[in-house]
Design goal:
A four-stranded antiparallel β-sheet has the order 2-1-3-6. Strands 4-5 form a two-stranded antiparallel ribbon. 31% of the residues are buried. The two termini are 19 Å apart. Helix content is 30%, strand content 30%. Helix 1 crosses helix 2 and helix 1 packs across helix 4. The longest helix has 15 residues. The protein is an alpha+beta fold and 131 residues long. It has four helices and six strands; from the N terminus they run E-E-H-H-E-H-E-E-E-H.
Length: 131
């Protein structure tokens, strides 16, 4: 992947523009970690999470086998930070989690599977080095 940005999102001195919620399988419950991040689109927002300040914890979570996926939402919302409106149901017959987001139809949401997330992390680390 070629990154089109001139300055990576984690090196920009701008306000956060997206919300990112990392979903993990914590055994008898689903773990959700919400963060406000920078970027001009969902991929840049995920890149900021993976490479920006505090990214060591995010990177560690992404590399764990219990990662369900990452939801990226345009705009910063305090309710999303404290209680993301995300419902995770049981896995289907092929082992894919059923994830539902209770959001208005005009709200921009992007889903990154564990494979997509890990692929982006590998590409970022290949290009910019490990965090």
């Amino acid at each position: 992947m070629t990154f089109e940005w001139q300055t990576p999102p984690w090196q920009r001195h701008v306000d956060c523009t997206y919300m990112v919620v990392t979903l993990t399988d914590a055994g008898d419950q689903i773990g959700m970690a919400a963060s406000a991040v920078r970027g001009d689109d969902a991929t840049e927002a995920l890149a900021d999470l993976l490479m920006g300040p505090g990214s060591a914890a995010s990177t560690a979570a992404v590399l764990q086998p219990d990662l369900i996926g990452v939801v990226v939402r345009e705009g910063v919302d305090e309710l999303w930070l404290t209680r993301p409106p995300i419902q995770v149901d049981a896995k289907d017959t092929v082992g894919v989690w059923d994830v539902t987001v209770d959001a208005p139809p005009n709200e921009e949401l992007t889903w990154f599977s564990p494979t997509d997330t890990r692929r982006l992390l590998a590409q970022l680390q290949d290009r910019y080095g490990a965090t």
